[in-house]
Amino acid sequence: MCKFNKIKHKNVITCTEAVIERKISLKQELKTLLLDVNSRIIAVHIRGSDRLKIRNIKKIFKTKNIFFVEKEFLNYVNLDKGRINPWNINFCQYNLICLNIFNNKFMATNNGKFDEGIIFKTDELLKIENIILGKFGENK
């Protein structure tokens, strides 16, 4: 786990709800998406303000078969949308981290709970295993 500061707040699920409670900008909220890439589970970490650039992921893995993981898989790994963060998904084969994130000194995400967030230095993400850095998000 990384070094962080906890923030208690009311239950949130989406990045938009989280930034209101955490009183930060959407560019400072980390969005972690889980994808099925040719039957491999990967995580993509982008800013809450950004949209996923799926074509860049297709190029890396040389495939057209990329899907968001099914709700049943999230249930199997005891997670829900709104509780996924870079430190509770050790089952992922790769962690794709968008370079846009490093435009911020600090980021925030959930602490594996709907009612608790964490604020951390962005370079903490570089300590995650199996990372690939790239342009995986773009402004909406």
From TrEMBL:
Alphabetical keyword list: Plasmid
Record keyword RNA-binding present: no
Top-rank taxon, per record: Bacteria
Ribosomal protein is among the record's keywords: no
GO molecular-function term, one example from the UniProt record: aminoacyl-tRNA deacylase activity
Pfam families the record matches: tRNA_edit
Residue ranges constituting the YbaK/aminoacyl-tRNA synthetase-associated domain according to the UniProt record: 9-95
Entry protein name: YbaK/aminoacyl-tRNA synthetase-associated domain-containing protein
Native species: Aliarcobacter cryaerophilus ATCC 43158
